[in-house]
Amino acid sequence: MSSDNKRQEDGKPLNSLVDKILKAYGLQDKMKNYDLIAAWPELMGPAVAKRTTEIRIEKNVLYLKIDSSVMRDELFSGKQIIIARCNEYVGAELITDIWFY
Predict the structure, then answer these.
(1) Residue 11: band (very low, low, confident or very high) from pLDDT cuts 50, 70, 90
(2) Candidates 3.90.550, 3.30.70, 3.30.300, 3.30.450; correct CATH number of 27-100?
């Protein structure tokens, strides 16, 4: 067995252990929140990311502060698509609504 294969096998139990710890302490959703916020530019593109001045998630609601009223209106009309894209990214139904301000 090469050292590369051994290294990959050793990583699997560690991932499993980390997942179990996150689940035990109820931190899975919190980590998914952080992952989603960090991926916002990748998910929505640079134009939207540049106009997003604040992003947070509370009780399954994504709160977005957008500094362009035109872009805010466009995003509002595509709200369900954004929710689906976010949930697909984290692999769970994390976001149920979006509020723009």
Answers:
(1) low
(2) 3.30.300
